[in-house]
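To illustrate this point, we now present one chain and its tokenised fold:
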Amino acid sequence: MMGVMFACSFMFIPGELDAEFYALDGAIDDFARSLEGFVGVDRWFSEDGTTRNSVYYFREMETVTTFSNFPEHLEAKAKYARWYEGYQVVISEVTAHYGDGRLSSAINAG
């Protein structure tokens, strides 16, 4: 178990994903990984593959704010309707987590 951290869950239904989307997505992911308070990321897909979920974990809320204000992140937010059929963001405070250690997850590595 680890101290408090924050989970930023980005759930979305992808539409037409073009080269600009992938470039911004890669830049955003690289920036998140470069941040001092970054713990890791887990990616999930719905059973039917229509909905995706990327969960980024950070140690402090200040890092979440830095991540959300990254210029490429702001650009992607402004253009979201080009690439998504729908989305939802949930930012949660994680106060505890546990398991038997046999499930690989970013939160276990943090």
In short: The domain at 5-109 is CATH 3.30.70.100 (Alpha-Beta Plaits). Helices lie at 19-34, 61-68, 71-78, 80-83, 106-109. Strands lie at 5-14, 38-45, 52-58, 84-94.
